[in-house]
Write a structure and sequence with these properties.
single chain; about 250 residues; alpha/beta; Stationary-phase Survival Protein Sure Homolog, Chain: A; 9-stranded mixed sheet; two-stranded antiparallel sheet; 6 helices
């Protein structure tokens, strides 16, 4: 297959390297277009007020793969690769992200947003992330993902769509299986931490400790990841609340 590979951790991140390497070894044609710097948690941003540049680069050990480092967001990278740089992908893959993208964290995720951008321009797209913020077991995640890629592609049946895949941070033999799950509502500290900078101004920093509680009866992606499963969630860009449409029409159209 022709595969466009992007991410939000940056073009030289371990996750994109391991995945590009595994895809190439499996015989796929890989085209890399990814941010030149870390764009984590940038969500679905597009660059509007400055020019973008796509610089050809070489990923260590992957000299045969056409690769670009782009001074933009993950969504920029998808649009630029397909619209200007000549990528003609059968599927767009965003990852492997060096942190999970579970539940409503997907709203903030540049990794997930790149895949949604691909879906929006009519191309099947998959976001893939690995649990924990460390690089351990990234090669296991990459090799496993490439093996299940044909099955993931069968989901699309030749139509655009988007899947969000999260893989445990352990050896493949310790994966508990695969679960298709709905998204959890993630909970974090609302208040930022406060500190004084060198000028005496108060600086605020986000607190990333997850407070999400999962009941054992939950069928959410967060719970299944904690139990050691590979978790797959179909996502879409349509944010309409259809359950409220009739009530809204009665209120506002009468």
């Amino acid at each position: 297959m022709n595969i466009l590979l992007t991410n939000d951790d940056g073009v030289y991140a371990a996750g994109i390297y391991e995945l590009a390497h595994a895809l190439k070894n499996a015989g796929h044609d890989v085209f890399v277009a990814a941010p030149c710097t870390d764009q984590s948690c940038i969500s679905h941003s597009l660059t509007l007020r400055r020019p973008l540049y796509a610089d050809k680069c070489v990923l260590n050990g992957l000299e045969g793969i056409e690769s670009y480092a782009i001074n933009g967001t993950p969504s920029d990278c998808v649009r630029l690769a397909v619209g200007n740089l000549g990528a003609r992908p059968d599927v767009i893959i965003s990852g492997i992200n060096q942190a999970p993208n579970l539940g409503t964290d997907a709203v903030y995720s540049g990794t997930v947003s790149a895949a949604i951008e691909g879906f929006m321009i009519g191309i099947p797209s998959i976001a893939v992330s690995k649990d924990t913020f460390v690089q351990d077991h990234m090669d296991d995640a990459a090799k496993y993902f490439v093996r299940i890629l044909p099955n993931l592609m069968s989901y699309f049946q030749g139509r655009p769509g988007m899947l969000n895949v999260n893989i445990p941070s352990c050896t493949e033999e310790n994966y508990k299986g695969v679960k298709v799950a709905k998204t959890a509502l993630q909970e974090y500290h609302l208040a930022f931490t406060e500190e004084q900078d060198d000028t005496g101004r108060t600086a605020y920093r986000v607190r990333s400790e997850k407070l999400t509680a999962c009941d054992d009866s939950d069928e959410t992606d967060e719970l299944f990841m904690r139990k050691g499963f590979v978790v797959i969630t179909p996502l879409t860009y349509d944010i309409t609340d259809y359950s409220c449409m009739d009530r809204a029409k009665k209120l506002f159209e009468s």
